[in-house]
Structure formats: structure tokens, C-alpha cells
Amino acid sequence: MKRSLLWKIEEIVMKGLMIAATTLALGCLLLILAAVVWKGLPAMNMAMITQAPRGGYYTGAGGGILNAILGSLYLAMGATLVALLLGLPIALYLQVYANRSWLAGLVALSLDVLWGVPSIVYGAFGFGLMLFLGMRASLLGGIIALSLVELPIICRAVGEVLKMVPFELTESAYALGTTRLEVARKVIVRQALPGITSAVLLAFGRGIGDAASVLFTAGYTDHVPTSLLRPVASLPLAVFFQLATPFPAVQERAYASALALTAMVLVISVLSRLASNRLSKYVVK
Amino acid sequence: MAEGWIERRGPIPRERTHQAIASREMRTKWRRLLDRMGGIAMGGLSIGAALLVTVIVTALLVRAWPILEAQPLEELLLGRTWHPLEGAFGFWPFIVGTLWVTGLAMFIAVPLCTLSAIYLAEYAPSMVQQLAKPLIDLLAGIPSVVYGLWGVLTVVPLIREHVGPWVDRRLGDVPLFSTVANPTGYGVLAGGIVLAVMVFPIVISVMEEVLHSVSDGLREATLALGVTRWLMVRKVLLRRALPGVIAAVVLGFSRAFGETMAVLMVVGNVPQVPRSLFDAAYPLTALIANNYGEMMSVPLYDAALMAAGLFLLLVVLGFNLLARSILRRTARRA
């Protein structure tokens, strides 16, 4: 009798704690979004997103962060493209050719490990590679480092999607005399297209927000990017550098840049969800 | 319709059949060749991916070699002085700084995340579950710079103006809580809080998945004995899912350990061994990010930073392999 009462009290207390913890955790995260919108919205205007910095921008003169917005888009697009071109064949190989072989295990292990490597280490490695090749901080260097960050993300996400392709579908294709390459190209990729699209968008969103890997490899510039071999600006670094200045007017712009960055990431994330929902109507079930 | 088509075509001449067979054989050979070539190309890429970790470790090792050669390892890792211009490279303050910030973050995050994951997996109404999952995924994608900005805007002022003075009044004599050395708010506590919030999404989602993987039969059999839900969670579910929960914590730890930008922005960046929660610290990641690029003229500086990167990489590799082996073992058992 007494013990069951104790249990009941314990149940109520623990449930209360759990609800409090969940509210606190989700609340903190939502608070971040709220803070960014709250601070960023007043500082946001058309000039911010349509102009590159003019002279004296970092002491409060006119201009915007078009250089960083475009730079980030180019960096993330290039890196996502490279990562997809490398990652999709790897994921397909693991699923179609090397299913359950020791090589597949080794590659999966390696990708898992790569997934956890801090992006600053990719940055340092990329920079070392660039020194070795005699390159300077440039869009190309940033794309290389960032594609290393995105490769494990794409491989993992695409691999998950490929696993969902029904076993019967590929088996029927094989029964018709199809080769593995044809199954991979014409059956699996088509069937998994919605998932692959959403994986690509996921990696793109991750790439656009990553700062540590492009810090030394892509550099920073006030000019709108024009060449693969020139340095480019990026939004995360724009936030970082503008926040570090002592001028309140420039710090305001850091808030606006953060708002632009967050908005882009959230839009991409929502698009990725929509892609997997909408495109799935073309899939054989 | 189909019959008419066949009639119009009539019988196929003999030599055309031979041609057709020959060309089909050619086609089959070609398809086989393509299949083989595709396999070789894709396999080559996969082997490249498998070797990438080794390549990165080797590259960092080669670039860090001058310092590893010039100084004994224990002096490098345990040395307390950091004066690159005089050739003194001691990583100890940075290692301790990283451990303080990461440890504090996990101290905050683990209980909160465990409780939230249990709530979301076991208690929450299905509407809340369906709402929370995409929300957590969404929040996991917020760039780390934004977390850092939030830290500068909210956490640091909160510590400077409210938490610091409040703690100072009550616990000012305890060295761990002293705010005397650094009343600015930028320090270990701010870094720990920001990192904790950063790892919330990943730890909660992995833990929730682990809890979901425990079979329903086990839950129902326990509840059928008439115990409360929490008792079932504590006595059965958590015991069963313990390895997975630990793996989630290890994953979160290694994520926090390697995080750069958010920490860099709020932690104060003073190369010292922190003694109080309010002291400034200087984690390894921040060291690399702050000094890379401007160290070319100082001998061994570049190698020292690469050694720091190598150290980070090896620690994170170790933790990830640990988490992976735990997760795989549980997956096999379930």
C-alpha cells in the first residue's frame, strides 16, 4: 500500500520533470530562432541583400552582404554537386555491387567516422592540401573543403534512401536479365529520386551554414564572386566578422546576416521535406 | 489491333534473324562490359572514401611532424606555457579548456536530453510526437554561427548581469564559482550552455530512436504487472536501452568536442587553465580557427596547429568508433 503510493508520487514527479526538460530543451531552441528574428528583422532591408559592401562598410557606411550571400550559395552549390557526384556512386556501389561484402563494411565504417570529423579539421586538411598544390584561398579551395564535409552526409542520407527501395523491384529487374549498372541507373535511382533530392537539400543546408571549413580555404572578400580562383565571402563568416567589430551599426548587420542565413537554411530544410513528400507520388509502391 | 499489326509484318526473312541475334549478342557483351566498368569506377570511388580517413590522418601527421620531432609528446600535451614567439608550445591550457567546456555542456545536456527523449518516446501524446520530430530535425540544421550569435546576445549578458552576481553573492568564496577574475560573462559557463543547446537536437533524436527500438512486448509485459509507467521506464526500458543511450551521449560529446565557431564566439579565448566556471577558456578548436593563416612567419607554429588538429581528430575518431561499436552491438541484440 505504502509502496504503491510512493511509486505514484515518483511517477508524478518524474513526469513533471520530463515535461519541464522537454519544454526547456525545445524552448531554448525556439528561443534561438526568436532571438535571431527579433534582432535581425529591424536591421534587415533591401540594401542588405542586394548590394555588396561599399567603402567604409565595416565602420558603418552603406552597402550590404550580397557578396556573402552569393559566395555562400556558390560554395554550397559547388560542394553539393561534387559531393553528390562522388557520394551517389559510392552509395550505389555499396547497395548494388558490394552488398554485404567486407569492402562495404569498411567503406561504411570510414563514412561513419568521416561523418563525425569536426569541420575545422576538414578546413585544416583542405588548407594543407591547397598549400601542397600551390593554391591560394579561393572559391575552388572552399568547395573542396566543403565537399569533404558534405560527402559523408550525402552518402549516409542517400544510403538510407536506397535501402528503402523494395527488394522485389530490383529482383524483378534482375529476373528480366538486367545488369547491375542498369538496375542501379534505371530502377534504383529513379525509385529513390525523391529521397535523393531531399538528401541533396539536407547536405546543401549543412554546407551553407558551415563556417569552420571555409575559414581558411575560401578566405573573405568584399567583392561579389566572379572566378573559381579568387577568394569568396560566406554568410557564416560575414556574421562572425561583423559581430566582432566594435561598431553597433555593423553588429546590427551581423544580426541581419544571421537572419538571412537562418531563413535560407530553414527554407531549404522545409523544401527538403516537401521534396520527399511531393515527389514520392512518382514512386512504385 | 495487335493481330492486324502482325499480319501486315509477315514472316521475318532468315538473314535478318541472324543479324538480329548477332547484334543482340554484341549488345549483351557491351552491357556486360559497361556493367563491369561501372563497377570498377564506383568501386574505385568507394575505396577512395574508405582511404580518406587514413589520408587525412597522414596529411595532418606529415604537416605536424616538425613539432612532434622538436618536442617530446608529453611536453607538447602537458606543457603549460604558450608563447609561440619563444618556441614554447604547450597544449595543456587548451586541452583543459576544451574538456571544461565540453564536460560542462554534457553535464547540462545529458539529464535534460534523457528526460526529454523518454518523454517524447514514452509519454507524449502522438500529436506532440509528430510535431516534435520534424521540429528537432529542423533545429539540428541551424548553423553553429547562429548558436554563437544567440550566445553573445542572450547567454553572455544573462551571465554577466544576473547569474554571475547572484552566484558571487552566495558562493563567491568557493573557487569554482568565483567571478572575480572575469566578470565579462564570456567564459566556460557561456561556452558550456551554448554547446549544450547545440547538442540537444542530435542527442535527443538518437536517444529517441534507441528507445523506440526496444520491443513493445517488453513494455506491455512489464506494464501488465501493474507497475507505473515510470517504474517500467526505470527498471526495464532504460536498462535495456542503456548501451544506446550511452552511444547517443558519446556522439553528442564528440560533436561538442569538435565544435568551433559557436564556442569561439562566447568562450573568451584566454590561454589559461580555467579555475572557475566563470573564467575564460581557450579550446583547441578556437586555437586553430583564431591563429591559422597568420602564423606563417613563426617557425613551428603551423606544425603546432596541425598537431592540435591531429589531436582533435584522433580523440573524435576514438569516440565515434566507441559509439558505433556500442550501437552495432545493441542493434544485433535487438
Word description of this protein:
The complex is a heterodimer of chains A (285) and B (334). Chain A has 285 residues and is mostly helical. Helix content of chain A is 76%, strand content 0%. Chain A contains twelve helices and no strands. Chain A has helices spanning 2-43, 46-50, 66-97, 102-116, 119-133, 139-163, 167-175, 180-191, 193-209, 214-217, 235-244, 248-278. In chain A, helix 11 (235-244) runs antiparallel to helix 12 (248-278). The longest helix of chain A is centred in the first third of the chain and has 42 residues, at 2-43. The N and C termini of chain A lie far apart (54 Å). Chain B folds into two domains: 2-70; 73-333, MetI-like (MetI-like fold), CATH 1.10.3720.10. Chain B has helices spanning 2-9, 14-70, 73-78, 92-123, 126-140, 144-171, 188-212, 216-223, 229-258, 261-266, 284-291, 301-333; strands at residues 82-83, 88-89. In chain B, a hairpin with a 4-residue loop joins strand 1 (82-83) and strand 2. At the A-B interface, helix 1, helix 3, helix 4, helix 5 and helix 6 of A face helix 2, helix 4, helix 5, helix 6 and helix 7 of B.
Q: Which fold name fills CATH's third level, the topology of the largest domain in chain B? A: MetI-like fold
Distance between the termini of chain B: 57 Å
Distance between the termini of chain A: 54 Å
> What shape does the CA trace of chain B take?
flat
Architecture per CATH nomenclature, i.e. the level-2 architecture of the largest domain in chain B: Orthogonal Bundle
Kindly provide the radius of gyration of chain A, computed on alpha-carbon positions and rounded to a whole number of angstroms: 23 Å
Q: Please identify the top-level CATH class of the largest domain in chain A.
A: Mainly Alpha
What quaternary form is this? heterodimer
General form of chain A: globular
Secondary-structure element string of chain A: HHHHHHHHHHHH
CATH topology of the largest domain in chain A: MetI-like fold
Overall SS class of chain A: mainly alpha
